[in-house]
Amino acid sequence: MRYKFAWLLLFTLHCGIFAAQEEPYVEDTSERHALHVRDPRSHIKVFLPSMPYNYVSRLVNEGLVRLAENDQGWEYALATKSTKLSPLLYEFELRRGVRFQDGTPFNADSVMHNFHYFLKQPFNYTNIHRSLKSIEKISDYTIRLHLSQPYGMLYRDLARIYIYSEAYLKTFGWKGAETGANIKASGPYGLGPYILTEGMITGRKQTPKATLKANPYYWEKQYPCIETITFYTELSTAEALRLALYEDGGLDFMQIPFNKKIETMLSPYAKLVSMPSTHNFTIYFNLAKTASPVARKEVRQALNCALNQQSLLDFTYKKEGRLNPAAFKDGACPLDEAMIERTLKGLELNVATQDSLLFLWKGIEYQLSTYGVKLRYRITTSEKEIYDLAQKNHHETQEWDILIQNTQDWYGRYPWPVFIRYQENNPWSFVRHDALMKSSIETFFGLEQDDALFHTLVQKIQDRAREEAYMLFVPIPNAVFAMNKELVFEPLGIGMQPFWKAKITDRHWSVRGDKAYPEELQKPVIPKRFP
Amino acid sequence: MKKIPIKYKLLLLFSFSFIGMLILAERTFSLSKENIRNATTIFENSQSTLHLQENYIEPTNALREMSLSLVMSPNEDYRKNIEADIIDRRARLEENFAKLDPQTYSAWKAYSNSVQKTCGYLEARFEEAAFVHVTSIERENYTALLNRLKSLQHDAIMQTKHNFSDIQTGARALKYELVVLVLLLSALVFVAGYLLSSHIVSSILKLQEGLKEFFGYLQTKTTQPKPIELHSRDELEDMAKLLNQSISKASATITQDTLFIEDAISVVNDLKLGKLSSRLHSTAQAQELRLLKDVINAMIDNLESKINEEILKRTEQEKLLIQQSKLASMGEMIGNIAHQWRQPLGELSALLINLQVKHEFHDLDEGYLLESIQRCMKINAFMSGTISDFQNFFKPSKEKEVFEISEACERAIAILQASLRYHGIEFSFDISEKMEVLGYPNEFAQALLNILSNAKDVLSEREISNPFIRLYLKKGYKYILIVIEDNGGGIAKEHMERIFEPYFTTKYAKQGTGIGLYMTKMIIENNMGGIITVKNTESGALFTIKLPSVPEAEVAAYM
Ligand SMILES: Nc1ncnc2c1ncn2[C@@H]1O[C@H](COP(=O)(O)OP(=O)(O)O)[C@@H](O)[C@H]1O
Ligand SMILES: [Mg+2]
Fold first, then answer.
1. Does a cis peptide bond (omega within 30 degrees of 0) precede residue A531?
2. Which helix H or strand E contains B330, and what residues bound it?
């Protein structure tokens, strides 16, 4: 009798829970509550550990054009119009009424001045330094660019050739080098929607924290909507997750590991957002190390063949990604199974990796271990160290046989961030003596994106890279974010996050005051998947 | 009171036991029937436990496993199959659970819905939610359902336990009931049985006592048994009466037969004493004894006539033997006389030759003649003495007299002396004291002579060097031993047994008669109550004669 009563109680309780949790997930209603006017208190905290300089520089600086999620991959920024007068001559109309962050006006002279500095010390990771010949001022708001050869990547490169203020250029010059981003000091030096007020970030050096304040002179008057952005660069993943998921006001935006999706979704303060990206895990073979087994093409091929891309995607990526077109298709391996086994048996490879990418290595290692391949890791927490290991390899062959780099799509849905790894003499490539590849890439530079040949050539380069197995190809990851529930923002799957468009709601921690975050809002929000 | 046969008494006892058994059987049967009913309930309970396990718990677990697999499935292809399985299983379980109580059914419903929800999330490609759901709400509902099922199972098991303990108590109660019943009934039967049996047994004991006494009487025939006193009013009393009759009859017969036997014993004793005229006169009761009486009387008659006949025959034979012996002795005696007379005869002829020579030479004077006559007379007297010696020797003694053994010995020796000397036999005769016996001296001397002459025969015949014969006497308290020993080589083993038989001889060449030792044995053993034995020594034979010595007083009486 007593039991029956207890059961009844338990049962009703369950029904209650069941009824209450009939729909435990709530819709994301933040957009309805978005503040459209910038509140001076508005503040978000962002953690982007991979290539943070890339993200920051695109917020602080601006060029004639900027990357965009559209078909051509860019949009006008400081320019308003351009005309291709000939394959080697482009004319740009400049935006009027634009001011530098320090309030000084922007005009053709600013561009001329900046390009003079650029042409003296250009960045070397595209072909711009070989293609751009000169710049010519036509009027106060018109300039012309003269090329030495047709250059299909011109606009994307222009999106990275930021216009710095006179003050900055005087002090720091252009100094593009391998990583480009060029914010050597805080100050109102740029034209971007945000001013770097604290810290500094370049490709090779950064402070752990950078503070960005809204640029009051920004030419798009409705932006930015948020006053302050704090950028973290060196948090550990665990700490960042703790801040983002379990501390209101800890972190508003971060890219999360795939296996933290559920926690993120269930978190009281964060929502889960995921989308296809054009980022990639760049896995180099040390082609410069002649003693390395991976110096042999068959070994590289065998390693590529040994990977089951779908399994990696299903289990390691937790389905957050898509198959890599550069990887061998099923059954397309040039080696037979016996050959693969023979080649891989007893293989021992040194792997240099960032700790945040170990999850991927566990997946790869699991698959390779069935062939008897042993991986030895050199683990680092710093992306900079990985860059160093890669760059030093040009001068002095490093120990690593395989090196992984988490590449954010810094070029905006364009194959170059991939092809850069195949270009002879590029600081980010170890490919040598591949005449076919060399000529293909040279041709590639000359082709416009809408050229009929463009696609065929891209295919050709990809095929060549696959055949030579220049990389260990793995699936292309989705971009998965933990985002504060009260942050209204549509992130991009490329190496740029347009935070100037981000809004917060009136319930956001930075504007809510002392009030606690309402209980009902702490319910899990149905994840958002783009597209 | 009327007579009740033992048969009915026992029947009564058996009826008691039988009724008791019937009662016990009835109780046991009814109780075991109840137990079977309980056991059946237990079986049904365990069936229902199994049923729950097979039709609810296991399929529910399987469903849970499927939904987990579904969530784990990496892609649609995997999911499709599992989803189909889940739908199928849910439908089947729905059917099953509909049969259970509403509480369990609603628990099932909750779980079933949550499984559906999980599927729904996956269909909407909301995998994270599916995972969270499957690990939280679905799990909770699953646990609740399982707990509900387990509690049902637990109830069933408790029921089983309860029934089992019922059976146990039932069995215990049955045990006690049976124990009490058994004790009661056995006590009843025991008391009845004890009374009856003690009644019968005491009768039997009385009978036994009477019989024992009677058989004791039959053995010892001392005290006449008393009649058995038994009033048990049953077959035993009849038996006792019969026994009493038999006893009195038997004791009468026994008294008569005892008398008869005593008579018979006295007759036999008479026969032992040689009174062959005695006959059995009293009559026995027993037919066999009467027959025995006739047989004994006839036998005695027959014996008497036979003995008389035999005695007659024997006397004749004896006489013949004695005659023969005498004749034999005579022959020997003549040899002995010849030896005795050889010297005096030679002396006599020498005297006569001397007389003749003296006369021829006229040297015969009166003195010498007289002296010669005197000497002749002496020789003559000696020779005549010898003859009378022999005569006396052979004269049978008239009646028993006490005589000196040494004297008799000397007489025998005297007869043999010359012959022994002739054969060069050394003879020693050692006698230290006077010994007297009762008997016939002549016959005894003759017996002795027979032994001595046999020794002499052996010694001379076998030409033994340094031959000797030794005779000595020993006196004991009751007996006198006379030992005669020689060194003639002894008696052949095969003859030892037979030398005392009449006509046994080894001296065929020398015309032995074989009577000598037979006679000797007769004289010593039959006439003088002694014993003669023989054995071989190292060198020869040794004869021992054992005679009862005559006590001093007796000797005096005979004088
Ligand atoms: N002293 C003895 N030594 C050896 N043999 C003896 C002696 N005395 C008796 N015998 C044996 O006993 C036999 C029987 O003796 P006996 O009865 O006197 O008859 P007989 O002298 O006529 O043979 C003799 O033939 C002899 O063989
Ligand atoms: Mg003889």
1. yes
2. helix B287-360
Find out whether the beta carbon of B458 lies less than 6 Å from any atom of ligand 1.
Answer: yes
Q: Is B459 in the pocket of ligand 1 (CB under 6 A)?
A: no
ipTM: 0.71
Task: State chain A's mean pLDDT as an integer.
Answer: 88
Q: Are B113 and A14 within 8 A, CB to CB?
A: no
Cα angle vertex A332, ends A331, A336, to 5°? 70
Q: For the segment A471-526, what is each residue's pLDDT rounded down to a tens digit?
A: 999 999 999 999 999 999 999 888 889 999 999 999 999 998 888 999 989 999 99
Q: Find the range with the poorest average confidence among A164-178, A388-402, B9-23.
A: A164-178
Cα B355 to Cα B367: distance, rounded to the nearest angstrom: 12
Give pTM, 2 decimals: 0.58
Helix, strand or coil for residue A272? Answer: strand
Would you put residue B43 in left (φ > 0), alpha (ψ -120 to 50) or beta? alpha
Q: Cα-Cα-Cα-Cα dihedral of A302, A306, A310, A315, to 10°?
A: -130
Q: Is the CB of B163 under 6 A from ligand 1?
A: no
Q: What is the DSSP string of B478-515?
A: SEEEEEEEE-S----HHHHTTTTSTT--S-TTTT--S-
Contacts A310 to B, Cβ<8 Å: 74
Residue type, B271: L
Q: What is the 3-state secondary structure (H, E, C) of A503-525?
A: EEECCCHHHHCCCCCCHHHHCCE
**Subunit contact B148:A7, Cβ cutoff 8 A:** yes
Residue B314 Cα distances to B320, B323, B337, angstroms: 10, 14, 33
d(CA B67, CA B80): 12
A530 touches chain B (CB under 8 A): no
Distance CA A94, CA A134 (A): 17
> What is the per-residue pLDDT across B316-368, written as a single tens digit (0 to 9) for each?
777 777 667 767 666 777 777 777 777 778 888 888 888 888 888 887 788 88
The residue of chain B nearest to residue A5, with distances taken between CA atoms, is B103
Please say whether the beta carbons of B442 and B363 come within 8 A: no
Q: In this complex, is the C-beta atom of B103 within 8 Å of any C-beta atom belonging to chain A? A: yes
What residues 275-314 of chain A have any CB closer than 8 A to a CB of chain B? 310-311, 314
Q: Which residue has the higher pLDDT, B40 or A398?
A: A398
